[in-house]
Amino acid sequence: MLSPAEALDRAQQLVERARRAGADAADAVYGASSSEAIQVRLGKLEDVERSESEHISLRLFVGRRSASIGSSDLSEQALDELAQRAFAMARSAPEDAYAGLAPQERLSRGPWRDLDLIDSHEPDPQALRALAEEAEDAARAVAGVTNSDGATGSAGGGVAALATSHGFAGAYGSTSRSVSVSVVAGEGSGKQRDGEWRSAHHLADLPSAASIGTIGGERAVARLEPGTMRSGPMPVVFDPRVGGSLVGHLMGAMSGGAIARRSSFLLDRLGEQLFDSGITIAEDPLRLRGLRSRPFDGEGLATSPRNLVEQGRVTGWLLESASARQLGLEPSGHAARGGNGAPGISVGNLDLLPGTLSVDALIADIADGVYVTELIGQGVNGVTGDYSRGASGLRIVGGRIAGPVAGFTVAGNLLAMFAALTPASDLERDRAINVPTLRVDGMTVAGD
Question: Which residues form the Metalloprotease TldD/E N-terminal domain (predicted)?
Fold first, then answer.
């Protein structure tokens, strides 16, 4: 895989080709990745996977007309043809008053802080297999676990580079290390499946493989012999591994593209009191070793820590340059680039900051409710905020966990859910979106 300097050179050369082809402006994004995964099942080697990929994409402007194109063929001839084809496409495209590169005066010039995203030690296949075996052995040792879907140890790395025709040039690399396990508990028609998965840039930042396996096994056993839920309004408590999805829905609604299209349930609500005044959602794209850390965004603007929700109020939209122009605002440093096309939106490491109550105290006054550990389906309307998801989890009776339940739906409206949200004190920063246990009063549960 190329070094960041070599990756940047690839991107800069493609921008130069675009200018020679006749483009008024252009940017190029180069990305490459490699990964290796070792899977075991029931103590035996099950699968070995190795993958490598690289891709380069070009966005080219002729006046207010633009075109985007990409290729995994990086030969000299292919890149020449890529630039020429993009120029021809752009000349035939309709004009877009908001198209263009990011404002030149806002570009991040570097040097950028080292975010420590690269683990210099590359685990060999034997080490990855040992991690997988350790996780599976621990999961299978949990009483009630009867079978295994397998465990995997994996390692990978990647590099990303961005170059623009108006002065930006930057690249960075990162590595990934992960361990996952999935096991089955119970017998016959009463079997239940669950597991655990953890990922980090550095192997040293992962919990032990044994602890990952134990958690996966305990989760599977905890699902055995589920009961049913009654229907009606009640408090719903979200486990941290699913509660982050609520913040994800909020981020989608804060996207400048959604606001510009008037297709967000937050439309005309900037600055309104959406949450309790004690709620803060903090973003830190410069966190050392953070899963979503990056020194600059997909248009070359600087990233920086900020509170996206402060005292329960949204502090601003998430803007790339096109939506910012459409809204008459400034880009916010949240642009993201995929394989091809115009920039989208991405946020850095997010934390919904914890409250003061322990989880036990958070549920102590719930006479009848549910603790959700799994959400199923995609029943969220980004325009209205209506929310309806299939779920399973644990029943809460008399302020205590009372056993597993499954086959029910939790429903509400995200605006009402945000207003009724109370965080516990158990925040852990081990995901890209980190939340403590969350309680939402007044949701509707549909069961038997």
Answer: 26-90
